[in-house]
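HUMAN: Spend a minute on the protein record below and explain its fold to me.
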Amino acid sequence: MANELIKFPNNGCTLYELEDNLQALANSIALAEDEPTRQIILDEIGQALRRTKEKRDAVVAFLKHCEHQRKFADAEIERIEKRKAFIASVEEQLESYVVQLIEQLAPADRKGIQRLEGNVSSMRIQKNPDSVLITDLSAIPAAYKHVTVTMPAYVWEAMLIRVGSEDRKVFESRVEKVEPRPDKKAIAAELKNGIAITGADLKFGGHRLVIG
């Protein structure tokens, strides 16, 4: 199955007598369709952790295995991305060469199309849509440019107030996108100092597992 882990080596680190290894347990957690079922499985792990040190070692061993598999997956993603980029480069170079070859060798038909025929396939060249090449961004008139400005929301509101109600309507009609983002660093500082911020609350950090 797609969400199964690579098989965990069976070296005596068994959590349950009825399970070959923790791989089956991890897959059960991933495949659990609802939260109650998932919680039952996690409760069983908790009961096992209370029994013996050997079973705790089994959990640590499996967690380290999960970490190694995650790092392996990251390395595979990087390798595949590089492979993808290499294939795309080869494809682009070959297509460019074939286009030049068709331009040089293939006569245009009555519709002006140049093509090379194979037994079961053919290749032809087609003009790409025209595109704009920006040679000097600073020289382009402001009417033909968009600008992205990041500023505190209160500065933005103050600017709108200062332009007046009529001008504000015109101004806002030309704004294509307004995307407020909370300044969590500033909010956290105020909340920690006991200052209430409407629409925000301080979420105290939980605990994370550190294995050794």
